[in-house]
């Protein structure tokens, strides 16, 4: 068991480090959009199919979908109700933008568009990583093995407690639900991230 718990713990530490960056970036993207004037510029575009960015090839609809995604990601971490949607489809649409625009609308619109695109890439990676870690947990029956441990008992071969592990696995399951159009159980996932960031310092 020792080898498996170390692998699982290290994988969880890594993904929580990424979540720590993600939760700040999604809020910053939304704030920048509404505070920089980009929202007014994008909203003024003629239709949903009107090109909005040069580098990322977003349409108006793509761009607003990216902001909606960022807003709901922030809600996911901050213990707020999220709007259920097929966000995997949103990720694919944003990854493969095909609008053509010769000149950027504004520096703010263009640069925030690039940040949205980077967020999309990170989300796709984190969905895959999360699935792999949850599969490792269940395929190796780690939950069954540690079920008799006290909540704050350190799991042999690791520095994580049963509570640390349970919170992380639950969050990863809800993370996948977020993207697959399934109702998400609302919780303070930011606290789970912070708990693991402290563990990462050990």
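Q: What amino acid sequence fits the structure above?
A:
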């Amino acid at each position: 068991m020792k080898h498996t718990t170390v692998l699982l713990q290290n994988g969880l530490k890594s993904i929580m480090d990424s979540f720590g960056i993600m939760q700040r970036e999604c809020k910053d993207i939304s704030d920048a959009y509404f505070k920089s004037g980009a929202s007014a510029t994008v909203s003024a575009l003629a239709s949903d199919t009107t090109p909005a960015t040069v580098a990322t090839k977003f349409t108006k609809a793509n761009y607003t979908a990216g902001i909606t995604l960022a807003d709901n990601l922030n809600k996911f971490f901050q213990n707020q109700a999220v709007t259920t949607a097929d966000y995997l489809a949103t990720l694919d649409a944003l990854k493969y933008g095909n609008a053509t625009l010769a000149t950027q609308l504004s520096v703010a619109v263009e640069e925030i568009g690039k940040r949205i695109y980077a967020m999309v890439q990170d989300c796709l990676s984190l969905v895959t990583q999360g699935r792999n870690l949850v599969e490792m947990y269940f395929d190796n029956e780690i939950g069954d093995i540690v079920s008799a441990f006290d909540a704050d008992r350190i799991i042999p071969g690791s520095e994580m407690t049963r509570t640390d592990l349970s919170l992380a696995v639950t969050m990863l399951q809800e993370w996948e639900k977020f993207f697959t159009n399934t109702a998400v159980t609302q919780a303070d996932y930011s606290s789970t991230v912070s708990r693991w960031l402290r563990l990462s310092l050990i």
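Q: And what stands out in the fold?
A: Helices lie at 2-35, 38-43, 60-77, 87-95, 107-139, 142-146, 162-179, 189-200.
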